[in-house]
Amino acid sequence: MKLTVFPLLFLALWMPQLVFAVQIDVTLDRTPVSLDESFQIIFTAAETPDDAPDFSPLEQDFSILNQSQSSNTIFVNGNLSKTVQWTLNVMAKHAGHLNIPAIKFGDDVSQATSVTVTKNVGKKGINSDNELFLEVKATPETSYVQSQVLYTMRLYTKSKIAQAKLSEPELNDAVIEKLGEDSNYNTLYNGTNYEVVERKYVIFPQKSGQLVINPLELTADVITDITPSFNDFFSSQTTKTKRVVSKKVVLNVKPVPATFTGQHWIAAEQLELKQEWSGDTQQVKVGEPLTRTLTIQAKSTTVAQLPELNTAKSSEQLKVYPDQPVLQEQKKPEGLRALRQEKIALIPSQAASYTLPAIEIPWFNTQSQKVEIASLPQMTITAVAAPGANPSAEITPSTPVVKAEKPKSTPAKPEVNPAQQVQPQRSFNKWLWAACVFFAAGWLITVVYFFTKRSTKKQVVVESESDANVKECVKKLKKACANNDMEKAKEALMEWGHKQFGVTSLGAVANFCEARLRDEILHLNQILYGKEAGQWDGKKLFQYFIENKARTAIANKDNSLEPLYRL
To answer: Of 122, 266, 374, 422, which cross-links 361 as Cys (Cβ 3.0–4.6 Å)?
Structure first.
């Protein structure tokens, strides 16, 4: 018996180290890279690892130029999040598909990854005598409407620059966002060393056809060293202004493919749909909430393109209380990552089995060029009566029973009624308490009324400033819908959505509206940017718009009541 206790004890002490190991992710600032270019390897941990890292395994294929460490702590939706990051600036020792091995951080280990290193064959049209030049590239140049295009700008310099001004990429009917911070590294072209500043953007074309990204223009003051003469004690520097222009880039944007039959068009490189439950779905207690968390996350798309997930409908037997969705976008070197998370509280009112419908999200895989479906199967949850519940049992307050006691015998004294002595004192105390309560209540009511009037006045002033702009948007929308002018209606809706919700696309505006208005906005978006022209009724959209405003006003009034269930 004693022999088996020690192995079990050792296993119990060893298991938490496996369960609670820190996950360490590895990312690259770009890939592929040239043999003569430096690049960054970034190790990111969600919390402090077991020990300092040992980067010596990297030295087999890479030269470590320098390294740095940083930490960041943020609050997201009330939750504390901490990240620790190690950034290594390295250069490959040879070309090929090189492995970045797993790095030990004490007992914690990072993920292994790889990088493609190409031989430096020079650039066509690049003169090594140029002091600076721009290079731009779009990947891919042939894409689909609302799919991601990665636009990369590189500035090559071999002279010092005092100050520079660079234009931004411009493209009509497209959403353009900058990705993170600029990358800086050195590279060798035609035997000449250049410093490179790399900047990345993501572009989401909202219209099919050939779209032209205008050339970028750089104006910079280049520092020129002047050799001092024999009589000069100090060297001097002068600057000369240079202007360079990149080439233009033409995108071939395809419409939605005919094979796609989904209601919401989603183009992405990856898409994942999952769910989590707060308890046992087969042992839900009647009257108690069960929380369902639905999460959809996609690579190379915007959060505005992710659809609503909750399809469960509320009934008398099963109440459904959805929370506000959590919308997140992460900017990675390879593009955007979007996440939409919905939490729904389900409260059964009687013991029974309840069926939740299956969820299917069709999406277009831009890597395989095929339509795929992310799905969750149909779910059945079982509600049971709470243990010990008995409707016939009545709860009565436990009031102690006081038994009457016989008065103790006391020496004979003149008979005096005690009630006659206490009655005047009790009467006086009652009046004193009543007066105190009355004056305290009056003072409290006065204070509440004063602060209520102040907050009401402030709210009226703030609302009066924004209402004028919103009303102007509504007037524009009404006029556009009356004339069946789709472009003007789109502009009015986007302007209204920007002022009300801070969003800049029709898909994002639709997510904030009730079902009928949302469907009409998405229908308008499909006609404007879809593969086929269709019929559009502006009066119908404006009618649903007005009804949506009325429902919102009623909901705002009801917000003063506490919700039945708060997540």
So the answer is: 374
